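>> received
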Amino acid sequence: MAQAVAKVPFDATEAELLSSGVPRGYKQLTTATSKLVKAGWLVKARSGWTATEEGVRALAAFPDAEAFADAAVNGKPVPEPVAGQTAESAAEPALEPVPEPLPELAAGQVQEELPVQVPQAPEQVQEDQSPVSAHVFDSGDQDQNQAQDPDQPALVEEAVVASGEPHVAAPEENVVAPEEPATNDAWQDQPQSVALAGDFNPLFGEAGHWTTNLRGLQLDYDAVENVWKLPLQLPAGTYQYKIVVNGSWDENYGAFGVLDGANHELRLLSDTAVMFRFDYATKDIETS
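>> returned
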């Protein structure tokens, strides 16, 4: 975190301290990077954050910030490296080709000059030379068939009344500026990551047996509902599991949101699509 802040310092808003004494930018960064954990591009541990090999390749494949974020959120596959190319070398910018030197001229030989292409100027539009540059409103001379279309905006800036005085539009009154939408700061109290850990062997094999960092068991934070969610298509059977926060058993929640509590249990009589919803405020989880 310190290295990230040193490279990209916080602005005034991000440097504000929250009620917990942590700068706002810390919470923003930890919450935003949960998408990278979900994508398998970043591993968060107590000893620090580490980019995976796939994450390093993603930096090379999606050098633009918007393209990188879009790929992480939408799960776009990262192109495989070229044979013989490492992830680190793929992230390095390609060198521009060096132009070949011009051939040396023999004594007395003159380099042939290439014809110079002179750009052609675009055709100029004949400007109106009429001395009258403003519209004149005269009810006596105006043709009724040429009355201004009520659906067209009035030419206020160029309009001149018959008396010769410029027309001044009346100022708008009682104009109320739109209110800015209220900012939802609930995410500031959220952890860096939330995952399921249990006996999910029927779905993930041995890798799904009580692991804390399996990519397929990472929950996504829904800022609208202020909950962490994960949909899974599970085979029929009985599953026991817990909620693991920030990838460590130091903070895990079992049944009824109890810290280090008993395992949650889920029984399915048939193959079922299950939605897991974890509320960090109550530390409890719901399935539907």
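>> The two ends are 37 Å apart (CA to CA).
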